[in-house]
User: Which sequence fits this backbone?
């Protein structure tokens, strides 16, 4: 049996630790590249720019593409801007202040519009600190461009300077194809769609009534029962004509020993 020196054992152990660490780092790097690639795909950014390129170049491309949205109604709107003093090197406190102001501005926009699309703009703040140390002025300009482009894009889509609840849905509906609009019109019996028309039309077709009253859907459902089921309901309730709540009253009467035939 060969005798192994302690130094050889220690050296072998160190080599194994180094190999394991290299493998772990390689897996972590692959996971990071995959994660950034997925994030970039969701955000519409090239993966190689985020992994190997400069953050400034990546976000400059994003800001320019957002700022290139078509303008119509919002051309006269005053631009959203963030003032930033760049006369001296930015410190940790100033950087934190910049990021806090950026988040505050974005959240204010989101509260005003209440739009899911603003969540994408908010995600930009997460990477702002990558640029804040190098070029805080570019951060402020890019953020201003992004906010402005987002607002202009909403105005261009809805045709309204002041966003109100439902504007996006109405604008999307107005952009439907003629065939889709004609189908909805035939279904609802109305040329102009209003919120709730589809639901009202569905209830009207089910209950055979234009004006819905509480219990109509339940009554209509009972009226559509088969004869055998109607006979079962009659046997339970003891009534030829079903009235909303009869089944519940009949069940309660059987429990309490009361009479359920009273109308």
Assistant:
């Amino acid at each position: 049996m060969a005798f192994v020196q302690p130094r050889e054992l220690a050296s072998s152990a160190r080599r194994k630790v180094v190999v394991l660490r290299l493998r772990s780092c390689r897996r972590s790097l692959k996971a990071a590249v995959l994660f950034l690639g997925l994030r970039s795909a969701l955000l519409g950014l090239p993966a190689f720019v985020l992994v190997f390129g400069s953050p400034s170049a990546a976000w400059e491309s994003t800001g320019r593409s957002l700022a290139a949205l078509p303008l119509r109604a919002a051309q006269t709107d005053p631009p959203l801007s963030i003032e930033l003093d760049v006369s001296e090197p930015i410190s940790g406190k100033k950087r934190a202040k910049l990021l806090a102001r950026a988040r505050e501005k974005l959240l204010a926009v989101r509260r005003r519009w209440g739009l899911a699309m603003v969540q994408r703009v908010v995600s930009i703040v997460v990477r702002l600190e990558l640029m804040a140390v190098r070029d805080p002025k570019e951060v402020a300009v890019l953020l201003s461009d992004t906010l402005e482009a987002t607002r202009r894009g909403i105005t261009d889509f809805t045709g309204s300077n002041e966003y109100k609840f439902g504007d996006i849905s109405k604008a999307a509906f107005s952009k439907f194809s003629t065939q889709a609009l004609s189908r909805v019109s035939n279904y609802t019996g109305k040329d102009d769609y209003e919120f709730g028309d589809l639901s009202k039309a569905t209830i009207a077709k089910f209950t055979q009534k234009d004006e819905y009253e509480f219990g109509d859907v339940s009554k209509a459902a009972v009226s559509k029962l088969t004869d055998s089921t109607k006979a079962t309901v009659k046997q339970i309730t003891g009534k030829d004509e079903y009235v909303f709540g009869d089944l519940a009253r009949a069940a309660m009467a059987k429990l309490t020993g009361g009479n359920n035939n009273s109308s």
Observations:
- Residues 178-256 form one domain.
- Residues 6-43 form the longest helix (38 residues).
